[in-house]
Amino acid sequence: MATYKKRGYKPKKEKVVEEVIEDTFDESQSDVAKTFEGLDEVANKSEQWIEKNSRPLFFGLVGIAVLILGYLAFNKFVGEPNEVNASNELAYPRSFFDQAEKAAGAKADSLYNLGLNGGADGKFGFLDIAKTFSGTKAGNIANYYAGITYLRQKDYQNAISYLSDFTSDDELLGPTALGAIGDAFADINQPEEALEYYEKAANKKDNEFTTPMFLFKAGQTAMKLGKHDKALAFFTTVKEKYSTTQIGRDIDKYLNSAKYAK
């Protein structure tokens, strides 16, 4: 028998689902509200802290600004003029050093001394520049020239001291200074120290001039110390990487000596 719905009939709504949704919505709203309340509390505490410490913060920022401005002013009005003055002073002793490198005997010694100590007319030498303009580029390079001059004069302790005060990432000067310290130690019969500095010099910069030269010196020094494996490694590197250099072309006999000495 067929059934029909009376006009105006409406099915009852399911209240259980609505209640569940309503309950879930209320819980999420509560979580969000708690989160915002927490953020408000943090913000209020931050504002209170800033208000409480506003004076120290202000003076701290002023102090930082003063330090930055002071540093910039020092560079502008003290550092830069110092660099210029030191560079100008360096030209005088360098001229004597360059002449001494081409001279010999007593004349060379006299020129080296002028380069180190300056002239009687008050002109600075390398020692004066290194001390007076310490911290400048010219003062740093004065340490190098002083060290090399002392090495030429066989004053090895002073050579080591001044060359150790010199720092440079220059392609040639950096390795040369380290290698010169190695030479000084070799000349005062301290081969272990000499080997250490020859290795440093060889590794400082990779080029076809200083690298094979100091690898070769390191190899020779290692041979004298009886460290034949190390010597073989140094000579092999020269053979493999720098065979087109003058040292590389002559390395085979030293390589064979290290092999047979093992």
What is shown here, in short?
The chain has 262 residues and is mostly helical.
How would you describe this structure to a colleague?
The chain has one domain (28-261): Alpha Horseshoe (Serine Threonine Protein Phosphatase 5, Tetratricopeptide repeat), CATH 1.25.40.10. The chain is 78% helix and 0% strand. It is built from twelve helices and no strands. It has helices spanning 15-52, 54-102, 105-117, 126-132, 137-152, 156-164, 173-187, 191-204, 210-224, 228-241, 246-249, 252-261. The longest helix has 49 residues, at 54-102. Mean pLDDT is 82; it is low at 1-9, 12-22 and 71-79.
Determine the strand fraction and express it as a percent band.
under 5%
Q: State mean pLDDT (0 to 100 scale).
A: 82
Dominant shape: flat
CATH architecture grouping:
Alpha Horseshoe
Question: Could you give the topology of this structure?
Answer:
Layout: H1 15-52, H2 54-102, H3 105-117, H4 126-132, H5 137-152, H6 156-164, H7 173-187, H8 191-204, H9 210-224, H10 228-241, H11 246-249, H12 252-261
Helix pairs in contact: 2-3, 2-5, 4-5, 5-6, 5-7, 6-7, 7-8, 7-9, 8-9, 9-10, 10-12
